[in-house]
């Protein structure tokens, strides 16, 4: 066993001198945040002139903040004076914390930490900002592996609140806690994680891209339709526009690294479509063309569909219970009020949706409209995606129509969805449509991460909200849904595609069973 490092005694890193190695995008942001929190910071980069250039750039950043009134001129001057570019590591030998933000290469990071072991004191904490390399691997072969910890900031560092504090197999708890406490003192929201592929955010976020890519590959809808539906569910950017922003090369590389680090588990299999875009140079904003042209040439626009009023109905019933059924009842009541009547209501019919003269609009449970049509014997049937509260009038909502339906139901189904206040967007008849399927997969991945001790449920929620701006964390999405329904939807997807991607997390299945056992037995 390697000896415990004296850093295990570390109680507090607050106010301690910090060495930041690597003066690129991340390193200069980390230096800024540390200096703004009052630390003396040394900034080092092996590229000649890089740390001085980063210092000069920080000076103009601070000038900008002063000009906008966001920073006091004297404070800006003092903060900048706390950052010292150094051309050798030896000049920063008194550092109590090193944060490494050099090139993403295991050999380079190990070599740097080995060199640092001969320079800094044995109680100095060594942190890596790696986004994909195992912290355990970086620590391998060092004299004091217990003091190596991941301190994963998000870009841009001064703006993004999340810091994933990553423990490798040998990281001492006191070291991780000291970095956690320090991150808090820097105004960040730290979350503990274990060193596993993708850590928290880059792991749990994979389905957000993967489900859209899978639907595109099946030609289920256009990128503009997929983006509109997920924006309507509260996400700041749809998956296609987000991949265009990140760059398909970067996004594909992260997916590939998570896939490979999981021994080619097909749950994380990268998309052939995205690989084609990468090899073809369709990298998104940076190359001028991805799913969309950049600058925008209108290809982001949605197809314009004008939906007239649906034909007058004789009998309308709202089925199901829960928030979505309540929303549907309100919307249907409003839609029918002009004609002076309201819908009937059936709570225990086993499905959620609206029935119009025997035709059905059904909230997706994972089965396609055509499957449901066969199962129920109702030919005039359409499924619609999971609306997220609060849905403003005109919110985009995906739907699909059963193959068995006649032409009149193909036109009536979207008219009814429009009458209920949605902007209906047609998808091919795919299981779980888009929002339901994407949310279920995010929940599933988060449940697996918690099961494997990567993070807590609260940690996963905070990480996804702060690291990638999700409108809610995966467990918060789950709280608005029944666990058994999420499991059923995933099982349906699993059955439909028969791959490993939709394998249900044992943690989620267990939770569903516990819920079923706790529920009162009804006749
Ligand atoms: P970058 O290319 O902007 O900067 C890296 C800097 O490190 C360069 O200036 C380079 O000259 C310097 N460098 C390389 N080897 C060095 C060495 N041995 N010693 C000293 N300096 C060295 O890269 P970046 O985007 O700032 O990323 C840095 C690290 O942060 C990587 O590990 C990356 O995975 C991680 N990260 C990046 C992001 C992001 O969005 N860019 C987000 C989170 C984490």
Helix content: 40-55%
How many domains make up the 3D coordinates? 3
CATH architecture of the largest domain: 3-Layer(aba) Sandwich
CATH top-level class of the largest domain? Alpha Beta
Number of strands: 15
Computed over alpha carbons, the radius of gyration is 27 Å
Largest sheet data:
8 strands, mixed
Question: Uncertain runs with pLDDT below 50, 5 residues or more?
Answer: none
If strands are numbered along the chain, what order do they take across the biggest sheet? Answer: 3-2-1-4-5-6-7-8
Strand content: 5-15%
- Measured between the Cα atoms of the first and last residue, the distance is 60 Å
Total DSSP helices: 20
From the 3D structure, determine the CATH topology of the largest domain: Rossmann fold
How would you name the CATH homologous superfamily of the largest domain? NAD(P)-binding Rossmann-like Domain
Shape: elongated
User: What small-molecule ligands were found?
Assistant: nicotinamide-adenine-dinucleotide
| Content-based structural category | alpha/beta
Average of the residue pLDDT scores: 94
Task: Write a structural description.
- This protein is an alpha/beta fold.
- It has 3 domains: 190 residues, 3-Layer(aba) Sandwich (Rossmann fold); 111 residues, Transcription Regulator spoIIAA (2-Layer Sandwich); 73 residues, N-(1-d-carboxylethyl)-l-norvaline Dehydrogenase, domain 2, CATH 1.10.1040.50.
- 43% of the residues lie in helices and 13% in strands.
- It has 20 helices and 15 strands.
- The strands form 2 sheets. It has an 8-stranded mixed β-sheet. A 7-stranded mixed β-sheet has the order 10-9-11-12-13-14-15, sandwiched between helices.
- The longest helix has 18 residues.
- It is elongated and about 85 Å long.
- It starts with 17 loop residues before the first strand and ends in a 5-residue tail after the last helix.
- Nicotinamide-adenine-dinucleotide binds next to α1 and α4.
């Amino acid at each position: 066993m390697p000896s415990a490092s004296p850093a295990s005694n570390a109680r507090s890193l607050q106010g301690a001198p910090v060495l930041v190695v690597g003066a690129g995008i991340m390193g200069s942001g980390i230096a800024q945040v540390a200096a703004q929190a009052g630390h003396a910071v040394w900034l080092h980069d092996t590229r000649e002139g890089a740390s001085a250039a980063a210092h000069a750039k920080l000076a103009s950043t601070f000038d900008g903040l002063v000009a906008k009134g966001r920073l006091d001129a004297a404070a800006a001057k003092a903060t900048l004076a706390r950052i010292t570019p150094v051309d050798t590591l030896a000049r920063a030998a008194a550092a109590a914390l090193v944060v490494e933000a050099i090139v993403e290469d295991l050999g380079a990071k190990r070599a740097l930490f080995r060199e640092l072991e001969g320079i800094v004191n044995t109680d100095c904490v060594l942190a890596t900002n790696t986004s994909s390399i195992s912290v355990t691997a970086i620590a391998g072969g060092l004299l004091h592996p217990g003091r190596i910890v991941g301190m994963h900031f998000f870009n841009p560092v001064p703006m993004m609140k999340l810091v994933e504090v990553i423990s490798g197999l040998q990281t001492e708890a006191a070291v991780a806690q000291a970095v956690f406490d320090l991150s808090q003192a820097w105004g960040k929201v730290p979350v503990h994680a274990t060193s596993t592929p993708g850590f928290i955010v880059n792991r749990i976020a994979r389905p957000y891209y993967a489900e859209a890519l899978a639907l595109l590959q099946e030609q289920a809808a256009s990128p503009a339709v997929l983006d509109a539906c997920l924006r309507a569910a509260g996400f700041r950017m749809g998956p296609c526009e987000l991949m265009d922003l990140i760059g398909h090369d970067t996004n594909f590389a992260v997916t590939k690294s998570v896939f490979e680090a999981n021994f080619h588990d097909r749950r994380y299999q990268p998309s052939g479509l995205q690989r084609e875009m990468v090899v073809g140079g369709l990298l998104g904003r940076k190359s001028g063309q991805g799913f969309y042209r950049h600058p925008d040439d209108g290809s982001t626009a949605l197809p314009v569909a004008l939906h007239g009023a649906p034909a007058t109905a004789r009998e309308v019933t709202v089925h199901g219970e829960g928030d979505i059924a309540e929303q549907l009842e309100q919307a249907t009541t409003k839609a029918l009020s002009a004609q002076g009547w309201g819908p009937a209501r059936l709570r225990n019919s086993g499905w959620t949706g609206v029935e119009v003269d025997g035709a059905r609009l059904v909230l997706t449970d994972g089965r396609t409209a055509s499957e449901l049509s066969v199962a129920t014997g109702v030919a005039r049937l359409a499924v619609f995606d999971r609306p997220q509260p609060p849905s403003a009038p005109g919110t985009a909502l995906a739907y699909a129509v059963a193959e068995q339906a006649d032409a009149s139901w193909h036109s009536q189904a979207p008219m009814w969805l429009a009458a209920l206040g949605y902007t209906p967007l047609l998808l091919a008849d795919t299981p779980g449509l888009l929002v339901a399927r994407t949310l279920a997969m995010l929940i599933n991945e988060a449940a697996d991460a918690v099961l494997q001790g990567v993070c807590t449920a609260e940690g996963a929620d905070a990480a996804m909200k702060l690291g990638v701006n999700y409108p809610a964390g995966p467990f918060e999405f789950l709280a608005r849904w029944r666990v058994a329904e999420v499991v059923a939807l995933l099982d349906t997807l699993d059955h439909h595609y028969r791959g490993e991607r939709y394998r249900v997390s044992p943690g989620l299945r267990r939770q569903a069973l516990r819920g079923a056992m706790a529920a009162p037995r009804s006749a």
